[in-house]
Amino acid sequence: MKAYIFPGQASQFEGMGKDMYENSELAKSYFDKANKILGFEITEVMFNGSAEDLKQTKVTQPAVFLHSVIRAKMAGASFQPDVVAGHSLGELSALVANNCLSFEDGLALVQERALAMQEACEMEDSTMAAILGLENEIVEEVCDSIQETVVAANYNCPGQIVISGSIAGINKAVEKLTNKGARRAIVLPVGGAFHSPLMEPAKARLSKAIEASTFNTPTVPIYQNVSADAESDPKVIKENLIKQLMSPVRWTQTMQNMLKDGVTSFTEVGGNGKVLSGFVKKVDRSLETQAI
Prior knowledge:
Largest sheet: 6 strands, mixed
Structural class: alpha/beta
CATH class of the largest domain: Alpha Beta
Radius of gyration: 18 Å
Distance between the termini: 18 Å
Order of helices and strands: EHHHHHEHHEHEEHEHEEHHEHE
Helix content: 40-55%
């Protein structure tokens, strides 16, 4: 069984998509359509912007989405997954690639998600930190012991969890986890506490946009971040997508469930092609990975 996996934020790079735009009429038509839907020239930022320009949430999310989805569209008949999954934002890319959402609805949702998250980030100083070399249970226990807001947000691969919360909560957790033996505990250069209770202000806006979008039965099942299980029911997919904003990304558990269900190869679609493939190798070094 083949899984196609779609990256989220942190897989962007300078000049992303420029080669696609210049060499494919199909890609050009999708990028031009995206500029109209978004109301600004995202192609200008993607093709010519600096790394700093690409870091803005309102740019990063649609840029990564477009790069992945258009790559999938360009693959044409050779795009043949048995199952799909996406990391955080990448879940929306996966839903468009497997025909659960239209390109237009998917991009409009990505824009709403980015703007809603940006607004939530501006309400309280918050951040995230990567914790390397500790068991999940130790990280969870330390987060639970801290009075300020701090939670496990991304279970990326065995031995790597990203925590999310208020500045005070993250600082306390980093200190405690270092004392517990974390190999590294690094505060990340992000604008807010994604996948944490601090995203609550963004929930109403995103929920409204998701409810207004048409979700179809997907071509192949999607393993969703919230449950780490394969889903094909549009109603369940929609509910999980709303929950995803404040819930952890269970990527390690998703990979483990895919392997249990018979997946033997993973293809990373879009972005720099390295982030998710690296996580897969941490789950099982012998697994076959490739990128498009």
